[in-house]
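note to self — DONT lose this again. spent like an hour looking for the file last time. sequence + predicted structure for the chain T wanted, 236 res
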Amino acid sequence: MSAPLPRYQAVKNHIMDQIAAGQLSAGDRVPSENELTRTFEVSRMTANRALRELMGEGFIVRHAGLGTFVAEGRVRGEAIAVTSIAREVEARGETWSASVLAAGEMRASAKLAEAFKLDVGAPLFHVTIVHSGDGVPIELEDRAVNPEAVPEMLSQDFNHVTTTDYLLKAAPLLRADHSVKAVLPTVAEAKLLGISAQEPCLAIERKSWTGDRVASIARLLYPGHRYELKTRFENK
């Protein structure tokens, strides 16, 4: 049985679900801390954390003296966050869709075996998916998953739920390492993303842990002109 969501996460999810459903559109005002405190019967600290994280992830913007509003702009990703591409796409008012190109088992190469701390040739789950916003490809996902961490992985329909959303529920995230590079796509990758092979792309390599073991290793490829990464530093 999954552990109950932290209260701030439930508030975040409620706002993101409203954005995804079109109940809140770009430029619309988002409930204030006081309103969230009353609606969800949470503390101001909890409501504030939910809004701060939504702002940090690019879903909302705050204007001093005016309030908090749904953000506009191209798809954004938080450089150090683990966020569903569906939420990133839908937050800008577009419809997320996915095309599953591969979903099955593979054998661990020497490189993957070392990363997962498994034997060479050990079974892994493998998925390749193109994610789009309003039909325009935004992300090419190539992911290997440890079956021991998420044995039901291949029974999911990733045309309707993202691997990120599923894994965050099925294998609670303990830690994630990220590597971000500027690359040129291969000819095959360019074709899948509908871009030229000379189009610069962002490649994010993400290794995620659940408990004390690696659950997932993913390579996420984005056309540079359709996606941006951002991060924030606070010295408190």
